[in-house]
Amino acid sequence: MSETFTKSMARNIYFGGSVFFFLVFLALTYHTEQTFPERSNASELNDSVLRGKAVWENNNCIGCHSLLGEGAYFAPELGNVFDRRGGETAFKPFLHAWMKAQPLGVPGRRAMPQFNLSEREVDDMAEFLKWTSKIDTNNWPPNKEG
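RESULT FIELD:
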């Protein structure tokens, strides 16, 4: 290699690097598209899950909570709340009791508003949160309590 770094050498490195990383990007995109069906649980989508998602969106839950790492960090992550709060046996009763008890009124603590959701809406929200908990998230969130 010569002692001077020429413009043509710089151009070749720039274009060569750009092509290389573009090919890496395409390969990673292809890999993600191939493995996504295995990681998602789209086959378990039902009307209750879709209604629960609508409750989540209509009440702007993501304005305070994060779900699978997306959203605000004002309140806890809810991607794993189904597992944290009892799973199949205890989650729905927990969620019903939690939603009825809001706001808790603990001084100095962030308060969740009372949304006055119907029993069906809370059940649907529970189904939605159960569905999200079964998505393979590569161990997100990193700590159990979100």
